[in-house]
C-alpha cells in the first residue's frame, strides 16, 4: 500500500536549505558555494544472523568467531548457515544453506563461479537424487558461526594496520 505524506510547498530559500538526509551545509556572513559533496559513513557491525541485539553469544574454548573486514561485502560468521544432507549409504554432505535448493526429485548444491562462493564444503557443485538421501534425518539449516582452532592454519605474511607499523613478517 502506497501512502502519500503531506508536504507543504517550500520557498526557494527552504528548497536550498533542505536535504533528504537531514544534513545541512551553510555559512554565516557573506555566504558560501559548495559543490561535489559526498556523504560517507563508517562501516559498522549490525546484529544479524547468529548474533541478536541484546542477547549474549558464547564462544566456546578453542573456537573463533570470524568477522569480515568489509561487513556489507562479505559473509562473516554472523551469517554462516549450514545445511547437512545425510545420505542413505552413511556419509553426510554439508553446504552453505544459501546455495542449497531442494525440489521433489533432487537436492542441488549450487556454486557461483564468478564470486567463488557456494558448493559443498569442498567448493564442489552437486546434484543429489532424493533416492540417495536419508530424508528422515534431513533437518533444516542452522547457524554455525564458530571455527575450530584446529581448522585455522597458516602464517601471517604482512602487517598492514596501523600503517606506521606496516611490515613483512618473517
Topology:
Elements (H helix, E strand, L loop, with lengths): L11 H6 L45 E3 L15 E6 L5 E5 L3 E3 L3 E4 L1 E2 L4 E2 L7 E4 L12 E2 L2 E3 L9 E2 L7 E2 L2
Antiparallel strand pairs: 1-10, 2-3, 2-9, 4-5, 5-8, 6-7, 11-12
Q: Would you kindly provide a written description of the structure presented here, covering whatever features stand out?
A:
By secondary structure, the protein is mostly beta strands. It has 1 helix and 12 strands, in the order αββββββββββββ. The strands form 5 sheets. It has a 3-stranded antiparallel beta sheet, with no helix packed on it. Strands 4-5-8 form a 3-stranded antiparallel beta sheet, with no helix packed on it.
Short key terms for the protein model shown above:
170 residues; mainly beta; three-stranded antiparallel β-sheet; 1 helix; 12 strands; extended
Summarize the structure.
The chain is mainly beta. It contains one helix and twelve strands; from the N terminus they run H-E-E-E-E-E-E-E-E-E-E-E-E. The chain has one helix spanning 12-17, and strands at 63-65, 81-86, 92-96, 100-102, 106-109, 111-112, 117-118, 126-129, 142-143, 146-148, 158-159, 167-168.
Name the average pLDDT. 80
Unreliable parts: none
Q: Total strand count, please?
A: 12
Q: How large is the radius of gyration?
A: 25 Å
Structural class, by secondary structure, is mainly beta
> Could you give the order of strands across the largest sheet?
3-2-9
Can you write the helix and strand succession as a string?
HEEEEEEEEEEEE
Spatial gap, N to C terminus: 62 Å
Amino acid at each position: 500500500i502506497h501512502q502519500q505524506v503531506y508536504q507543504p510547498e517550500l520557498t526557494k530559500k527552504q528548497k536550498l536549505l533542505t536535504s533528504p538526509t537531514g544534513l545541512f551545509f551553510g555559512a554565516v556572513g557573506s555566504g558560501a558555494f559548495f559543490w561535489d559533496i559526498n556523504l560517507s559513513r563508517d562501516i559498522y557491525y549490525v546484529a544479524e544472523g547468529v548474533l541478536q541485539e541484546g542477547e549474549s553469544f558464547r564462544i566456546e574454548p578453542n573456537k573463533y568467531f570470524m568477522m569480515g573486514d568489509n561487513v556489507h561485502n562479505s559473509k562473516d560468521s554472523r551469517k554462516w548457515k549450514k545445511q547437512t544432507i545425510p545420505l542413505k549409504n552413511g556419509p553426510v554432505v554439508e553446504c552453505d544453506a544459501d546455495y542449497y535448493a531442494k525440489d521433489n526429485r533432487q537436492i542441488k548444491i549450487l556454486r557461483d563461479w564468478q564470486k567463488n562462493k557456494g558448493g559443498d564444503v569442498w567448493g564442489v557443485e552437486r546434484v543429489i537424487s532424493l533416492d540417495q538421501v536419508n530424508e528422515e534425518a534431513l533437518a533444516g539449516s542452522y547457524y554455525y558461526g564458530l571455527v575450530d582452532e584446529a581448522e585455522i592454519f597458516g602464517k601471517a605474511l604482512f602487517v598492514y594496520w596501523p600503517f606506521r607499523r606496516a611490515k613483512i613478517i618473517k
